[in-house]
Amino acid sequence: MPDSSTDTAVAPLSSFTILRHLVRAAPLTVPPSASVRETLLKLDAAHTDAIVVVDEASHVPLGIVTLRDVLRRIAIEAGDLDAPIAVIMTGGLITLPASATAHQASVIMVRRSVRHLVLTEPDGSYFNLVSQADLYAQTGSRAAELVSSILAARDIPALAGLSAEIRRFATDLLAERVGAESICQRISALNDLLTLQVIEVTAGNFELPYVPWCWLVFGSEGRLEQTLSTDQDNGLVFAATSEAEAAGQRAAFLPFARAVNEALDSCGFPLCKGDIMASNPAWCLSLDEWQLAFGAWMATSEPEALLNSTIFFDFRALYGQDSLAGELREWLLARAPLYPIFLRALVENTMNWESPLNWWQGFRYDGNKQFPHTIDLKMYGSRPFVDAARIYALANGVPDTNTVERLRGAARSIGMQTHEAAALVDAFYHIQRLRLEHQAAQYGGAAPNRVNPDHLHELDRHILKESLKQARNLQQRLARDYALT
Predict the structure, then answer these.
(1) What is the pTM of this model?
(2) 137-145: long-range contacts (C-beta < 8 A, 24 or more apart)?
(3) Domain of residue 385, residue span
(4) What is the distance between the terminal CA atoms of the chain, rounded to a whole angstrom?
(5) Do 189 and 207 belong to one domain?
(6) How many domains does the chain have?
């Protein structure tokens, strides 16, 4: 394994930053015929610790060389400084497309215990190298301690304790007035890592089919928008060549999936009341079966079925063979625009949302007897943004799953001005912050998303009204775009 340091942190500059835009340094390369001496001189001149070996004709990356590699193989193993660098380079590169996000890179770095990832262009040629120094701004912070502890945990009780530590960390960030975007990203990044470790620990107890497979996450976790109160929404996709083979592999995966779901439950992620979990045979499917499921939802467009299925359209790969999820995403984005009735039905489903603002811009309440004089900020606050962003992403081929990135990605296609998109983003994150603050104060309460506006600071109450106006404006835009007005 190359570059096997375990020095890690988890405070990316932005989880959604595209790696192509993040890396600033010029790419540093050598051909495989360059000598070790030449390579060392190049590293010294560039004041860096890693260089990529590329094929001179195709510019395809062949290997990576770090100062640590050179010291071990030259000083300790008495290697030859005049030998070709190809002799000591580390092959079997861990690569990512340059279009990948900082979140994807950070998860891979932590999981694979590496300090560098090689970025490639669509044709496989070398683009540049991304390092932990590029990704992380707060090495040595409390987040880094949590990462180290999660990676060191070898059983579920230890991980359950760390899950509680993640919640306390998020609560402290709220008290420090860290922005909602950053908090949601950090919660999601840490929860991703903890879930990865739960899967890793659990998988060691099972004989799993020797086929490509991938653990999928849906809903808020799929969108990287987890708050302090969230249950499980997950599934599993695997490769199979026939129905019979799929059935056999499903039977083998289900006990493992149940064990993971139960372990996550013990870590503070309650079992999904709707049974949207990988342990449900309905959501432990081959790639072909997942395509059939999505195809049926798009073809039938029954309101109740669509209402229950929208969570699946936010799927994201978490563990395993990411390419399975990537293939499913490409398949879905290519077909969704071909089903205008389906997209219109999604819009119609969002129209059951009634603004919590009355005509004179005061707050309107939904008559909940158990929690009177409150507004459900998930149902009537963040949901309109989430629903609209999902629809515009599916209609315009935007691959992102995060609500804000979906809105930004679709803005130009739907004729939305930059300042309009920015206003929507600010409104969405203000509502998310209020949800987080309420959950931190009422953790474990029966109504984690219900807020009494009278209990808010006057400024927060005013901004909440403006944010709900933006939600209403977005819904009205959807209605116009799909001729529902």
Answers:
(1) 0.82
(2) 137/11, 137/12, 137/13, 138/9, 138/11, 139/7, 139/9, 139/11, 140/9, 141/9, 141/11, 142/169, 142/172, 143/9, 143/10, 143/11, 143/169, 143/186, 143/190, 144/8, 144/9, 144/10, 144/11
(3) 343-481
(4) 59
(5) yes
(6) 3
- CA-closest candidate to residue 55, choices 123, 7, 114: 123
Is the domain of 161 the same as that of 265? yes
pLDDT tens digit sequence for 417-433: 999 999 999 999 999 99
User: pLDDT tens-digit profile of 202-254?
Assistant: 998 999 999 999 999 999 999 988 888 788 999 999 999 999 999 999 999 99
Q: Classify residue 125: in a domain, yes or no.
A: yes
Mean local confidence (pLDDT), 465-479? 94
Burial of 115 (0-12, 13-18, 19+ CB in 10 A): buried
Query: Is 1 part of a structural domain of the chain?
Result: no
In whole angstroms, what is the distance from residue 62 CA to residue 60 CA? 6
Residue identified by tokens 């502890």 is 149
β-pairing, 450-451 vs 375-376, is antiparallel
Quick: pLDDT tens for 124-137: 899 999 987 777 54
Is the distance from CB of 159 to CB of 268 less than 8 angstroms?
no
Both structure tokens of 24: 């600033």
**Spatial separation of the C-alpha atoms in residues 257 and 226, rounded to whole Å:** 21
Residue 466, domain member (yes or no): yes
| Residues present in the chain in total | 485
d(CA 125, CA 119): 9
214 has which bridge partners?
Answer: 237, 320
| pLDDT at residue number 186 | 81
For 36, 70, 89, 94, the CA distances from 43, given in Å and listed in that order, are: 11, 11, 14, 21
